[in-house]
Amino acid sequence: MLVVLIRTIILFAAVVTVTRLMGKREIGQLQPAEFVIALMISELAAIPMQETGIPLVNGLLPIFMLLVLQATVSYVNLKSEKARALLSGKPNILIKHGQIDEAELFRLNYNINDLLEQLRTKNFPDISEVDYAILETNGDLSVLPKAQHRPVTVQDMNLPVADKGLPVALVLDGKVNANSLKLAGKNKEWLLNQLRNQGFPAEPERLFFVSCDANGKLFVQPKRGK
After folding, report:
1. With contact defined as beta carbons under 8 Å apart, do 111 and 118 qualify?
2. CATH number corresponding to 92-149
3. For residue 45, what are the CA distances in angstroms to 27, 38, 48, 55, 125?
4. pLDDT in tens, 215-225
5. What is the rounded CA–CA span in Å between residue 89 and residue 82?
6. What letter would DSSP give residue 133?
7. What are the backbone dihedrals phi and psi of residue 134, each rounded to the nearest 5 degrees, phi first?
8. Are 150 and 143 a contacting pair, CB within 8 Å?
9. Which H or E run contains 95?
């Protein structure tokens, strides 16, 4: 039993390490080659985990070999457009100038119901509002609405807008994040003074979340019951 537990921990650590080295894409964003490698890694880890008679190295070695293979495929995809098209495919235009390309749907084995479902998930239930719909290589559908159906932007209305920048989290669950304070160009004394001035507890342990935008404006949420 102890042997199984130790093997499981080792294999889990190996798979997590390999997955982290492969990148931060979600499952739905993986290219076909990457998805196949992810499936093979899970299968290779499961076999020596269940069968204690199989040497552990027989499971670890192929897993790390797949990591090398994935890195090679990623490098080839980066450097060669032809290889990228062969391994990952190309985006396919399903709707062009508001017209559905029936031949392309048939070629991709992509029926009209699938297309309508994807459009609804993108908040386009009315297909007459769509100018282009492009099926990306990861299976996601990109939708470009017709000009008259595009959302009005601040630029369209010629309104001045101040850039708030990227807010940073200064306090997380009662703990001050020193790196975030440094990134915001602030210090702990400034944070405590700002909290006092706004009527919040100056003890970070009583706060659940505090963030700061580029203008120094704080968002503060105390802990429940505090």
Report:
1. no
2. 3.30.240.20
3. 18, 11, 6, 12, 43
4. 888 999 998 86
5. 10
6. E
7. -120, 125
8. no
9. strand 92-96
Residues 100-139 pLDDT 10s: 999 999 998 889 999 999 999 999 999 999 999 999 887 8
CA distance 216 to 191: 10
In this structure, which amino acid lies at residue 206? R
In words, the CATH class of domain 168-222 is alpha beta
Instruction: Quote the CA–CA distance of 5 and 71 in Å, as a whole number.
Output: 30
Residues of the chain with CATH 3.30.240.20: 92-149, 168-222
List Cβ neighbours of 146 (8 Å cut-off, separation of 6 or more).
98, 129, 130, 131
Distances (CA, A) of 63 to 89, 111, 123, 177, 184: 25, 37, 41, 36, 41
- What is the pTM (predicted TM-score) of this model? 0.62
The two beta strands, 130-135 and 99-100, are unpaired
